[in-house]
Structures are given as C-alpha cells and as structure tokens.
Design a protein that fits this description.
Number of strands: 4
Shape: globular
Structural class: alpha/beta
Strand content: 15-25%
Largest sheet: 4 strands, mixed
Radius of gyration: 14 Å
Distance between the termini: 37 Å
Helix content: 25-40%
C-alpha cells in the first residue's frame, strides 16, 4: 500500500481475490463494523471461511444494533455471522485448544 490509498478499498479488493478467509472471532468481534463487513463480504462472495473462536462460543456471538444504523447492513452481518457460526472451526479457551 502507498500513502493515500484507501484502506477500505484495499481490504475489499483483497477479500474479493482471496480463496480462503480466516475469521478470528473474539468476545468483542461483533462490536466491529469492519470485522462484520469483511465477514459478510467473504460470505457473499462464497469464500471458504475458517472460523477461529477465541474465548467465545459460537452461540454467544450476535450482531448488536449499535454496529450500524442501516437495517440492511445489520441483516447482512447477521446472515454472515450465522453462516460462520455453523461452520466447523477451531476453538481456543485462554491458551488451550478446545
């Protein structure tokens, strides 16, 4: 990347051209607009997503209304998160592989 490049555009371009995505899901993951946007983009473009659950169970993850004021964004994020929660991944609790 060069000075002046738009980070958001570069990330979207990289996601569109990757073959596999890795989502590291933590207790605060769903508070990040950017994390949820990238996850939704990976899911929408049918990338293989490998979830890594760090100190969080899939059932504990849910999109919060405060992440985005747009209803359609919340629906996108919720759909992507549900898809990811039902994908076999890797789970860590503290420093232990579960």
């Amino acid at each position: 990347m060069k000075p002046g490049d738009r980070l958001f555009d570069k990330i979207e371009d990289a996601v569109r051209h990757c073959k596999v995505g890795v989502a590291v899901l933590s207790p605060h993951y769903c508070e990040s607009y950017f994390c949820l946007h990238e996850l939704a983009l990976m899911t929408e473009t049918r990338k293989r997503v490998i979830p890594i659950f760090c100190d969080v169970k899939p059932s504990q993850l849910q999109v919060k209304d405060s992440v985005s004021p747009a209803v359609n964004e919340l629906q996108r994020f919720s759909w992507a998160l549900e898809e990811t929660k039902h994908t076999v991944g890797i789970a860590y609790a503290g420093t232990e592989l579960v």
